[in-house]
Specification:
Length: about 400
């Protein structure tokens, strides 16, 4: 007799499992049900070849959701290797394979042209087309001697790339041959709607516990969170970025530890009790001073929406003396149609301003720092970063290098 197969299992096996279950042997049926469910999930993932980025998504979070590794997801999306932590709402991500490995050949000499508009910078043009500044300079070697001096009306080769500007899901996606949508330059970021309530125990300035004479940073300088002094900042990301100034340590053997603390609640005698619980901890290899931009790795638990966490940086100078920094972060609800609509329809160089004007501190900083990494020297992005430091009174940190600590993609 010929039996049809359902997700790789014949109907005979399924019927037999039902008989066995009816005779008091549920384990086989339960195991089979688990395998069918597992196979069905794998089938769905294999068929879902593309995923549309939502508010709060990170590449690590998407990899976890689809049960694939970070490096495998990058293999599926070689165009993201130069910006693995910089994805945009509405962008399509390949989650089911079918992508070729990244090419090592030099960029083509011909391709799509972009006409420079008033207020454009070469870095901004690169970002809007999903390119790094070095790539766009490779497309346009004649600009290498004047990367910060392009002229209105000048034609820039942007290769075969498309402007990264998403279309809302209820509208048709333009064909690849459609002309790129118009874009405009933007003003530097200004923050609005930042939280005003001070968080007890959290502050932008670090402290020393123990003997101050045993402080082990260079010149005994404290660490500082790159954030307002009230002690709380917002994010939408499941795996956000954290920013702080690290003054450097006197000895390479001194451990620097990042810890993320959450809260668990339980009912005790009719009352709700809350206790702190460690979500993630990692010892960081920091060897020089500068501003640290640390991406929460995908091996951690993701941040839960509408929950507040405290992140801590601790330097164990001696057994009796520690230097530490504490700050709080809250993940906002991603059910925000108005903001999603703005992000889906705006050019990506507008993202820093959109997040800043929404009061989402850590996401605005993330976008500014990563876009600045893509386009170093871009005057608008440099002004954005300077505005951030001036807003929180850290003018002395202007010009300090930003060190990105990102997930291992090997």
């Amino acid at each position: 007799m010929l039996h049809k197969k359902i997700l790789g299992f014949s109907t005979a096996i399924i019927l037999a499992s039902c008989l066995i279950e009816g005779n008091g042997y549920p384990s086989f049926a339960s195991n089979l049900e688990h395998k069918i469910s597992e196979s069905h999930n794998s089938y769905q993932i294999a068929q879902a070849r593309t995923y549309r980025v939502r508010l709060g998504d990170t590449l690590g979070g998407i990899a976890n959701r689809f049960g694939i590794s970070f490096s495998q997801l990058l293999n599926y999306n070689p165009q993201l290797r130069s910006r693995p932590n910089l994805i945009y709402v509405g962008e399509s991500i390949n989650v089911g394979g079918g992508a070729s490995s990244p090419s090592t050949s030099p960029p083509p000499s011909k391709g799509r042209k972009y006409t420079v508009r008033r207020g454009d910078t070469l870095g901004g043009i690169a970002i809007r087309h999903g390119l790094s500044l070095s790539t766009i300079l490779a497309y346009n070697p004649h600009l290498a001697s004047r990367p910060n001096s392009i002229n209105v009306g000048e034609r820039i080769n942007v290769g075969s790339s498309q402007i990264i500007r998403r279309t809302p899901t209820n509208q048709p996606i333009p064909s690849p041959t459609s002309p790129p949508p118009s874009t405009s330059s933007r003003r530097p970021v200004t923050f609005r709607g930042l939280p005003t309530t001070r968080r007890q125990g959290s502050n932008s300035i670090g402290a020393i516990r123990g003997n101050k004479d045993e402080a082990c940073t260079k010149a005994g300088e404290n660490m500082r969170a790159i954030a307002p002094e009230n002690g709380l900042g917002f994010t939408f990301d499941d795996y956000p970025y954290f920013f702080w100034y690290f003054p450097g340590v006197e000895s390479d053997s001194v451990p620097v530890i990042f810890t993320l603390i959450g809260q668990k609640t339980r009912e005790v005698n009719g009352r709700t009790r809350t206790r702190a619980t460690k979500v993630y901890e990692q010892e960081l290899n920091l060897d020089k001073s500068g501003i640290i931009a640390f991406a929460l790795p995908p091996e951690s638990e993701p941040l839960k929406e509408e929950q507040e966490y405290q992140w801590r940086i601790q330097i164990n100078c001696t057994r009796q003396t520690t230097m530490f920094l504490k700050y709080s972060i809250k993940r906002q609800s991603t059910d925000n149609p108005e903001l999603v609509s703005k992000l889906e329809t705006a050019p990506v160089d507008q993202y820093p301003l959109i997040f800043a004007e929404s009061g989402v501190w850590f996401d605005a900083l993330k976008i500014i720092s990563l876009q600045l990494q893509q386009a170093p020297g871009d005057p608008i992005l440099e002004q954005d970063w300077q505005n951030v430091l001036e807003l929180i009174g850290f003018n002395d940190l202007i010009g300090e290098p930003i060190q990105h600590i990102q997930p291992n993609i090997q």
